[in-house]
């Protein structure tokens, strides 16, 4: 009797558990209706409908906030430009340079805020791209400017050979793996301009704090992994999750020469999240930081 009661309770709870799993999945923008389990009761369907309404209302609220902040940031560009033009007429060179430096910092922060907010509003259309070529183009832009940025491409594909009736079998014969000499042309469905910006932010950070950047890419049938390595001081482990938040800085002086705007890594995380991927930060064994982007390969 007890076993029957436990089995019945388990059967009744199963649709609710599956509904909870559906709610816990990574959020999608715009949110998709929850998948109601087959055989779910009317009560479970009503709960799912209520959750859908709440998610849709929350998504609309966040979208309105994003549009408002983007509009404010965009409109600030005009008075900032006017102030810069008027500051050029200040006769005292010392005061003029200080005001222009402050206006440059304001312009930089406005541009960074717009870049961040764009990730939450109208997004670039996805397309299939030659991902290795995109990486190479980004790194070449730095190399052309004499910046120490190096790309290590994904290693060639290797396959183990198998003996058949037409060739030597595996018994007692060492078989060398079959290797393709051509470089791997990694294809990835993505938003290329957004990924270009994310990669640029990671490389800029590596150059700023580590003096050089090494970009490494590897791939499986399911995902593409990009590592950006530097030789800098790294980030304390307790701070690694915090630096991915908007406007958070390890250096709190709010000096753009040392602390930046606090949006660089937040923009990277926003781009990676929009691709359904993950961004991981870790300190290297000797010195430096490893920033890893893991992007799913989708058809």
Automatic annotation (TrEMBL):
Known EC number: 2.7.13.3
PROSITE patterns reported for this sequence: HIS_KIN
Catalytic activity from the UniProt record: ATP + protein L-histidine = ADP + protein N-phospho-L-histidine
Family annotation (CDD domains): HisKA
Top enzyme class: transferase
Location in the cell: Cell inner membrane
Membrane topology label: Multi-pass membrane protein
Recorded GO MF terms: phosphorelay sensor kinase activity
GO CC entries: plasma membrane
SMART domains: HATPase_c, HisKA
Keywords noted in UniProt: Cell inner membrane, Cell membrane, Kinase, Membrane, Phosphoprotein, Transferase, Transmembrane, Transmembrane helix, Two-component regulatory system
PANTHER family: SENSOR HISTIDINE KINASE ENVZ, SENSOR PROTEIN CREC
Full protein name: histidine kinase
Species assigned in the record: Elstera litoralis
């Amino acid at each position: 009797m007890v076993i029957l009661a436990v089995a019945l309770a388990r059967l009744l709870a199963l649709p609710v558990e599956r509904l909870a799993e559906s709610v816990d999945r990574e959020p999608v923008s715009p949110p998709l209706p929850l998948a109601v389990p087959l055989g779910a009761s009317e009560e479970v369907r009503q709960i799912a409908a209520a959750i859908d309404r709440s998610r849709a209302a929350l998504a609309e609220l966040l979208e309105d906030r994003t549009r408002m902040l983007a509009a404010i940031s965009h409109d600030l560009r005009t008075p900032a430009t006017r102030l810069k033009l008027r500051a050029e007429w200040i006769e005292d060179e010392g005061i003029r340079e200080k005001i222009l430096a402050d206006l440059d910092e304001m312009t930089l922060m406005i541009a960074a805020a717009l870049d961040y907010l764009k990730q939450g509003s109208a997004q670039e259309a996805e397309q299939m791209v030659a991902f290795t070529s995109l990486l190479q183009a980004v790194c070449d832009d730095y190399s052309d400017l004499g910046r120490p940025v190096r790309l290590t491409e994904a290693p060639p594909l290797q396959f183990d050979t198998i003996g058949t009736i037409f060739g030597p079998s595996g018994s007692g014969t060492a078989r060398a793996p079959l290797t393709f000499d051509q470089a791997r042309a990694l294809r990835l469905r993505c938003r290329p301009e957004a990924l270009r910006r994310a990669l640029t932010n990671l490389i800029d950070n590596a150059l700023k704090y580590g003096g050089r950047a090494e970009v490494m890419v590897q791939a499986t049938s399911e995902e593409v992994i990009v590592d950006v390595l530097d030789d800098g001081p790294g980030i304390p482990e307790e701070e690694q999750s915090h630096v991915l938040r908007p406007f958070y800085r390890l250096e709190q002086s709010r000096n753009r020469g040392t602390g930046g705007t606090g949006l660089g890594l937040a923009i990277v995380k926003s781009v990676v999240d929009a691709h359904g991927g993950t961004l991981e930060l870790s300190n290297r064994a000797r010195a430096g930081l490893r920033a890893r982007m893991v992007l799913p390969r989708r058809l």
